[in-house]
Amino acid sequence: MNWDDLRYVLAISRDQTLSGAAERLGVTHTTAGRRLRAIEEALGVRLFDRTPEGFMPTAAGQDIAEVAERLEGEVLALEGRVLGRDAQLRGKLRVATMDMLFRRYHGAFSSFMTRYPSVELTVVCSDNEVSLTRREADVVLRMTNTPPEYLVGRKVGRVEFAVFASTELYERMGPDATYADYPWIHWDERLNMRWLDAWLADNAPNARVAMRIDFQPLLLRQAIAAGIGVHFLACFEGDDDPGLTRVGPVQSDYSRDLWLLTLPDLRNTNRIRAFMDHIAERLCT
């Protein structure tokens, strides 16, 4: 068996589901299932029993998972030693993310530069998708529940959203005010944000639209803080601002996973692997 096979067995043993193992490994559910079948066929032995409680390791599967766990510890320790003393970890690195994610996690970027000062880091903040295949970036930190299958990486968090108002507006409206009672900030009609029209029709019928703005998240947050109206914000942004208050509960339908992604042929580049490991370590702990 090779180390990649062992990683799949270990991940499935830990999560007991293909979906959980796929998230851990940064692959799709289909890929995780296909790899498990291939490993079992190659070994000629069943490694997991499929039960209502999940994938339970057989004696053979448990044996392999225990060996894989020991090897994983040694591999991670080795990588840490090598990367930590690699004076040649240098070169250009281009990372694309969203403005609000950089504001939230700028400390992780800063500590990466302190750790690897010879890496020439460029950060591109845009709410538009960039193309890794056209080398517009080497790594992306993005919110998505369906990462493209042609990219590899890992899930490093989840972003929740809720409706926020300025604290002054919330106190003026009172705790019993409904979504429909509040003035709303909406997007410019040319942006064709029909999802918000549908949400308002269901949750805030006949609500007044106080102002429309271009798709600029920082401008949106400033408009909310000014008391002009209410809108969705990431909970980590709204909850950290004492001048803002949640108007309602988390809107779980709009929650998004947070992924670090790169191209398969770039993932073993030292500076890219070091960046992804560093950011994952900071965001997952």
Low-pLDDT sequence parts:
none
Can you count the beta strands? Answer: 12
Given the C-alpha coordinates, what overall shape results?
A: globular
CATH topology assignment of the largest domain: D-Maltodextrin-Binding Protein, domain 2
CATH superfamily heading of the largest domain: Periplasmic binding protein-like II
Would you give an account of this structure?
The protein is an alpha/beta fold. The chain folds into three domains: 3-84, Winged helix-like DNA-binding domain superfamily/Winged helix DNA-binding domain (Arc Repressor Mutant, subunit A, Orthogonal Bundle), CATH 1.10.10.10; 91-142 and 260-284, D-Maltodextrin-Binding Protein, domain 2 (3-Layer(aba) Sandwich); 161-254, D-Maltodextrin-Binding Protein, domain 2 (3-Layer(aba) Sandwich), CATH 3.40.190.10. It is built from ten helices and twelve strands. The protein has helices spanning 3-15, 18-25, 29-43, 59-84, 99-115, 167-173, 194-203, 217-225, 235-239, 270-284; strands spanning 48-51, 54-57, 91-97, 119-125, 139-143, 152-159, 161-166, 184-187, 209-213, 231-234, 244-246, 256-262. The strands form four sheets. Strands 4-3-5-12-6 form a five-stranded mixed sheet. A three-stranded antiparallel sheet has the order 10-7-11. The chain has a two-stranded antiparallel ribbon with strand order 1-2. Helix 1 crosses helix 2 and helix 5 packs across helix 10. The radius of gyration is 23 Å and the shape is globular. The two termini are 31 Å apart.
